[in-house]
Amino acid sequence: MAKLVTRALTVKEVSASYARTHRNPRFLKTLRRYRRANQKTRFYHAIIDRQTGDVIGTHGSYYIPVRTMTVEVILSDLAWWGKEVVAEVRGALIVAYHDSGRVDQVTCNINSRNFGSLINASKLGFEQVGVNYMSMFDELENGPADYITFSLRGEALKKQVEAYKSEAANDAH
């Protein structure tokens, strides 16, 4: 991640990020989950622009004791949307979890209306493994939302890890 760095969020940064999203209820829900991070099985970190030092979003993940890690990335700074940040952060997380030796599968759940994230999951080699119909309440739409479950495992996981490492090595040169 040449342009980005991650670290634990401070309370001040949580408040600033929430304010920057114009009090977006979807982002607030994530910030509430941040409080439950234990840094052993559940992690939440800030995504920071290396040049400015500004928090542009968060990434969170939690470990499920069946060698599975679930990942979410949320950009609160709209100026960074469409700039491959989500794919870059997810890719780096996939490599880190795979290299830890504790994970055989990475999953993510995406709101079916979030087309950008659906495309990013496909770019990273995730395959759709399920749909949770009307499983969450979408505050922005003021109604139920369907979530699509994606998984990256087995040979597809290994292939994606190697591709990401190769791309990172090329970017370094």
How would you characterize this protein structure?
The protein is built from five helices and seven strands; from the N terminus they run E-H-H-E-E-E-H-E-H-E-E-H. It is of the alpha+beta class. Strand 4, helix 3 and strand 5 (105-111) form a beta-alpha-beta unit. The longest helix is centred in the C-terminal third of the chain and has 19 residues, at 154-172. The mean pLDDT is 78.
* Shape, per Cα inertia axes: globular
Strand content: 25-35%
Order of helices and strands: EHHEEEHEHEEH
Largest sheet: 7 strands, mixed
What integer is the average pLDDT?
Answer: 78
Helix content: 25-40%
Stretches with pLDDT under 50, minimum 5 residues: none
Structural class, judged by helices and strands?
Answer: alpha+beta
The neighbouring-strand order within the major sheet is 1-2-3-4-5-7-6
Instruction: Give the strand tally.
Output: 7
* Overall radius of gyration: 16 Å
Separation, N- and C-terminal Cα atoms: 13 Å
Please, how many helices?
5
